[in-house]
Amino acid sequence: MFKIATWNVNSIKVRLPHVLDWLKKHKPDVLALQETKMTDELFPKAAIEKSGYHVAYSGQKTYNGVAIISRQPIKDIVTDLPKLDDPQRRLLGATINKARILNVYVPNGESVDSTKYQYKLDWLKKLRDYVKQQLNTYSQCIILGDFNIAPEDRDVYDPAAWEDHVLVSEAERKALREILKLGFCDTFRLFDQTSGGFSWWDYRHFAFRRNLGLRLDLILANKTLADKCKRCTVDKTPRSLERPSDHTPVVAEFE
DNA sequence: ATGGTGGCGCGGCCA
What we know:
The chain has helices at residues 12-26, 45-50, 115-137, 159-162, 170-180, 223-226, and strands at 2-8, 30-34, 54-58, 66-70, 75-78, 91-96, 99-105, 141-146, 184-186, 200-201, 213-214, 217-222, 229-234, 250-254. The chain starts with a strand and ends with a strand. It has six helices and 14 strands. The strands form three sheets. The chain has a six-stranded mixed beta sheet. A six-stranded mixed beta sheet has the order 5-6-7-8-12-9. Helices cover 25% and strands 27% of the residues. A hairpin with a 2-residue loop joins strand 6 and strand 7.
Protein backbone atom coordinates (compact mmCIF):
# COMPACT_ATOMS: atom_id res chain seq x y z
CA MET A 1 0.00 0.00 0.00
CA PHE A 2 1.08 3.51 -0.81
CA LYS A 3 -0.62 6.37 1.07
CA ILE A 4 -0.27 9.94 -0.15
CA ALA A 5 -1.83 13.11 1.24
CA THR A 6 -2.08 16.83 0.59
CA TRP A 7 -2.57 19.61 3.14
CA ASN A 8 -2.53 23.38 2.84
CA VAL A 9 -1.18 24.19 6.32
CA ASN A 10 -1.33 28.02 6.13
CA SER A 11 2.06 28.51 7.87
CA ILE A 12 4.31 25.56 8.75
CA LYS A 13 5.57 27.58 11.72
CA VAL A 14 2.14 27.66 13.36
CA ARG A 15 1.02 24.23 12.17
CA LEU A 16 4.17 22.14 12.74
CA PRO A 17 2.71 20.43 15.85
CA HIS A 18 -0.41 19.50 13.88
CA VAL A 19 1.69 18.14 11.03
CA LEU A 20 3.94 16.05 13.30
CA ASP A 21 0.92 14.64 15.15
CA TRP A 22 -0.80 13.86 11.88
CA LEU A 23 2.26 12.06 10.48
CA LYS A 24 2.51 9.96 13.61
CA LYS A 25 -1.17 9.05 13.53
CA HIS A 26 -1.63 8.38 9.80
CA LYS A 27 1.86 7.29 8.72
CA PRO A 28 1.52 8.40 5.09
CA ASP A 29 4.25 7.53 2.60
CA VAL A 30 4.05 11.06 1.20
CA LEU A 31 2.57 14.31 2.53
CA ALA A 32 2.52 17.37 0.24
CA LEU A 33 2.22 20.73 2.00
CA GLN A 34 1.19 24.13 0.64
CA GLU A 35 1.36 27.66 2.05
CA THR A 36 4.33 26.93 4.27
CA LYS A 37 5.08 30.69 4.27
CA MET A 38 8.69 30.18 5.27
CA THR A 39 12.10 30.62 3.64
CA ASP A 40 14.18 27.47 3.11
CA GLU A 41 16.79 28.44 5.76
CA LEU A 42 14.10 28.48 8.46
CA PHE A 43 12.21 25.34 7.38
CA PRO A 44 11.84 22.86 10.29
CA LYS A 45 13.82 20.12 8.51
CA ALA A 46 15.25 18.49 11.64
CA ALA A 47 11.89 18.08 13.37
CA ILE A 48 10.43 16.32 10.33
CA GLU A 49 13.49 14.11 9.79
CA LYS A 50 13.32 13.14 13.45
CA SER A 51 9.86 11.71 12.69
CA GLY A 52 11.47 9.32 10.20
CA TYR A 53 10.86 11.26 6.99
CA HIS A 54 12.82 12.90 4.21
CA VAL A 55 11.74 16.41 3.27
CA ALA A 56 12.14 18.78 0.33
CA TYR A 57 10.88 22.34 0.18
CA SER A 58 10.67 25.47 -1.92
CA GLY A 59 9.69 28.39 0.24
CA GLN A 60 9.50 32.14 0.45
CA LYS A 61 8.86 34.70 3.15
CA THR A 62 5.24 35.42 4.17
CA TYR A 63 3.48 33.94 1.11
CA ASN A 64 3.14 30.63 -0.78
CA GLY A 65 5.74 27.89 -0.25
CA VAL A 66 5.47 24.14 -0.88
CA ALA A 67 7.08 21.05 0.66
CA ILE A 68 7.10 17.28 0.23
CA ILE A 69 7.54 14.93 3.18
CA SER A 70 8.36 11.33 2.22
CA ARG A 71 9.32 7.99 3.77
CA GLN A 72 11.40 7.19 0.69
CA PRO A 73 14.16 9.42 -0.74
CA ILE A 74 13.04 12.41 -2.82
CA LYS A 75 14.75 12.69 -6.19
CA ASP A 76 14.83 14.90 -9.30
CA ILE A 77 13.39 17.97 -7.58
CA VAL A 78 11.94 20.76 -9.72
CA THR A 79 10.75 24.10 -8.32
CA ASP A 80 9.73 26.09 -11.40
CA LEU A 81 7.33 25.71 -14.30
CA PRO A 82 9.00 25.92 -17.71
CA LYS A 83 8.43 29.23 -19.51
CA LEU A 84 7.20 30.96 -16.37
CA ASP A 85 9.65 33.38 -14.78
CA ASP A 86 7.99 33.63 -11.38
CA PRO A 87 9.36 34.27 -7.90
CA GLN A 88 6.24 32.77 -6.30
CA ARG A 89 7.01 29.33 -4.84
CA ARG A 90 4.02 27.24 -5.94
CA LEU A 91 5.42 24.05 -7.47
CA LEU A 92 7.48 21.19 -6.16
CA GLY A 93 8.04 18.27 -8.51
CA ALA A 94 9.83 15.15 -7.31
CA THR A 95 10.30 11.49 -8.06
CA ILE A 96 9.59 9.06 -5.24
CA ASN A 97 10.22 5.42 -6.07
CA LYS A 98 9.09 5.42 -9.71
CA ALA A 99 6.23 7.88 -9.36
CA ARG A 100 6.42 11.50 -10.47
CA ILE A 101 4.81 13.70 -7.82
CA LEU A 102 3.78 17.28 -8.62
CA ASN A 103 2.81 19.27 -5.53
CA VAL A 104 0.97 22.44 -6.55
CA TYR A 105 -0.28 25.55 -4.84
CA VAL A 106 -2.40 27.02 -7.63
CA PRO A 107 -2.84 30.82 -7.44
CA ASN A 108 -6.05 31.92 -5.70
CA GLY A 109 -6.98 34.49 -8.36
CA GLU A 110 -8.63 36.95 -5.95
CA SER A 111 -11.67 37.68 -8.21
CA VAL A 112 -12.56 37.04 -11.84
CA ASP A 113 -11.86 40.68 -12.80
CA SER A 114 -8.44 40.72 -11.13
CA THR A 115 -5.08 40.56 -12.90
CA LYS A 116 -4.36 37.75 -10.40
CA TYR A 117 -7.12 35.74 -12.08
CA GLN A 118 -5.29 36.02 -15.42
CA TYR A 119 -2.11 34.94 -13.66
CA LYS A 120 -4.01 31.93 -12.29
CA LEU A 121 -5.23 30.91 -15.76
CA ASP A 122 -1.77 31.38 -17.24
CA TRP A 123 -0.22 29.38 -14.39
CA LEU A 124 -2.66 26.51 -15.02
CA LYS A 125 -1.89 26.52 -18.74
CA LYS A 126 1.84 26.35 -18.03
CA LEU A 127 1.20 23.55 -15.53
CA ARG A 128 -0.77 21.65 -18.18
CA ASP A 129 2.09 21.97 -20.68
CA TYR A 130 4.56 20.77 -18.06
CA VAL A 131 2.39 17.80 -17.06
CA LYS A 132 2.04 16.77 -20.69
CA GLN A 133 5.81 16.81 -21.01
CA GLN A 134 6.29 14.84 -17.79
CA LEU A 135 4.02 12.06 -19.09
CA ASN A 136 6.56 11.39 -21.84
CA THR A 137 9.07 10.45 -19.14
CA TYR A 138 7.01 8.98 -16.32
CA SER A 139 4.34 6.27 -16.53
CA GLN A 140 3.15 6.96 -12.99
CA CYS A 141 2.16 10.54 -12.15
CA ILE A 142 0.27 12.20 -9.32
CA ILE A 143 -0.63 15.89 -9.23
CA LEU A 144 -1.85 16.96 -5.82
CA GLY A 145 -2.28 20.10 -3.81
CA ASP A 146 -4.44 23.15 -3.29
CA PHE A 147 -5.91 23.79 -6.74
CA ASN A 148 -8.00 26.75 -5.57
CA ILE A 149 -10.73 25.41 -7.88
CA ALA A 150 -13.90 23.57 -6.91
CA PRO A 151 -14.20 21.22 -9.93
CA GLU A 152 -18.01 20.97 -10.00
CA ASP A 153 -21.08 22.44 -8.32
CA ARG A 154 -21.29 19.45 -5.97
CA ASP A 155 -17.92 20.61 -4.60
CA VAL A 156 -19.52 23.86 -3.39
CA TYR A 157 -21.85 24.31 -0.38
CA ASP A 158 -24.01 26.90 -2.18
CA PRO A 159 -23.40 26.75 -5.95
CA ALA A 160 -25.96 29.47 -6.71
CA ALA A 161 -24.26 31.96 -4.40
CA TRP A 162 -20.84 31.09 -5.84
CA GLU A 163 -21.81 31.12 -9.52
CA ASP A 164 -19.20 32.92 -11.67
CA HIS A 165 -17.06 33.69 -8.62
CA VAL A 166 -13.38 32.94 -8.36
CA LEU A 167 -12.68 29.31 -7.23
CA VAL A 168 -15.72 28.06 -9.18
CA SER A 169 -15.83 30.07 -12.43
CA GLU A 170 -16.05 28.29 -15.78
CA ALA A 171 -12.67 29.36 -17.19
CA GLU A 172 -10.70 27.99 -14.26
CA ARG A 173 -12.78 24.79 -14.17
CA LYS A 174 -12.03 24.39 -17.88
CA ALA A 175 -8.30 24.89 -17.21
CA LEU A 176 -8.51 22.07 -14.66
CA ARG A 177 -10.39 19.84 -17.11
CA GLU A 178 -7.64 20.43 -19.68
CA ILE A 179 -5.21 18.87 -17.20
CA LEU A 180 -7.57 15.97 -16.43
CA LYS A 181 -7.94 15.36 -20.18
CA LEU A 182 -4.25 14.47 -20.34
CA GLY A 183 -5.35 11.23 -18.67
CA PHE A 184 -5.90 11.97 -14.98
CA CYS A 185 -8.64 11.05 -12.54
CA ASP A 186 -9.81 13.09 -9.57
CA THR A 187 -9.33 10.20 -7.12
CA PHE A 188 -11.96 11.46 -4.65
CA ARG A 189 -14.62 11.01 -7.35
CA LEU A 190 -13.60 7.42 -7.97
CA PHE A 191 -15.34 6.60 -4.70
CA ASP A 192 -17.63 9.37 -3.52
CA GLN A 193 -20.36 10.99 -5.66
CA THR A 194 -21.93 13.04 -2.88
CA SER A 195 -21.71 16.73 -2.11
CA GLY A 196 -20.17 17.85 1.18
CA GLY A 197 -16.70 16.29 0.94
CA PHE A 198 -15.16 19.70 1.40
CA SER A 199 -11.50 20.38 2.23
CA TRP A 200 -11.58 24.14 2.91
CA TRP A 201 -13.77 26.32 5.08
CA ASP A 202 -13.43 30.08 5.54
CA TYR A 203 -12.21 31.13 8.96
CA ARG A 204 -15.14 33.55 9.16
CA HIS A 205 -18.83 33.06 9.99
CA PHE A 206 -18.30 29.71 11.78
CA ALA A 207 -18.05 28.22 8.28
CA PHE A 208 -16.56 24.90 9.44
CA ARG A 209 -19.19 24.35 12.12
CA ARG A 210 -21.88 25.05 9.51
CA ASN A 211 -20.05 22.98 6.83
CA LEU A 212 -19.97 25.95 4.47
CA GLY A 213 -16.99 24.66 2.52
CA LEU A 214 -15.48 23.95 -0.87
CA ARG A 215 -13.48 21.00 -2.17
CA LEU A 216 -10.31 22.71 -3.40
CA ASP A 217 -7.64 20.18 -2.43
CA LEU A 218 -7.30 17.40 -4.99
CA ILE A 219 -5.28 14.29 -5.67
CA LEU A 220 -5.15 13.59 -9.41
CA ALA A 221 -3.70 10.27 -10.55
CA ASN A 222 -2.94 9.24 -14.11
CA LYS A 223 -4.90 6.23 -15.38
CA THR A 224 -2.15 3.71 -14.61
CA LEU A 225 -2.22 4.71 -10.95
CA ALA A 226 -5.95 5.45 -10.77
CA ASP A 227 -6.62 1.78 -11.57
CA LYS A 228 -4.74 0.95 -8.37
CA CYS A 229 -6.42 3.59 -6.20
CA LYS A 230 -8.36 1.99 -3.35
CA ARG A 231 -9.55 5.00 -1.37
CA CYS A 232 -9.58 8.81 -1.27
CA THR A 233 -10.97 10.62 1.75
CA VAL A 234 -10.99 13.98 3.47
CA ASP A 235 -9.77 13.96 7.08
CA LYS A 236 -11.77 16.69 8.77
CA THR A 237 -10.23 16.09 12.20
CA PRO A 238 -7.36 18.64 12.00
CA ARG A 239 -9.81 21.40 11.04
CA SER A 240 -11.48 21.06 14.45
CA LEU A 241 -8.25 21.45 16.46
CA GLU A 242 -7.18 24.63 18.26
CA ARG A 243 -5.70 27.18 15.82
CA PRO A 244 -6.34 25.08 12.71
CA SER A 245 -5.41 25.68 9.10
CA ASP A 246 -8.43 26.69 7.03
CA HIS A 247 -7.76 23.55 4.91
CA THR A 248 -7.76 19.93 6.04
CA PRO A 249 -5.84 16.92 4.67
CA VAL A 250 -7.01 14.81 1.73
CA VAL A 251 -5.63 11.27 1.61
CA ALA A 252 -5.43 8.70 -1.20
CA GLU A 253 -4.33 5.08 -0.94
CA PHE A 254 -2.99 2.90 -3.74
CA GLU A 255 -2.45 -0.87 -3.75
C1' DA B 1 -23.16 43.74 5.79
C1' DT B 2 -18.00 46.82 0.56
C1' DG B 3 -18.10 43.45 6.42
C1' DG B 4 -16.09 39.18 8.52
C1' DT B 5 -11.04 35.85 10.43
C1' DG B 6 -6.25 34.45 10.33
C1' DG B 7 -0.96 34.72 9.16
C1' DC B 8 2.77 37.69 8.81
C1' DG B 9 4.74 41.28 11.16
C1' DC B 10 3.77 45.90 12.78
C1' DG B 11 0.89 48.69 8.03
C1' DG B 12 -1.22 46.45 4.81
C1' DC B 13 -1.28 42.49 1.85
C1' DC B 14 -3.07 37.99 0.85
C1' DA B 15 -6.30 34.32 1.21
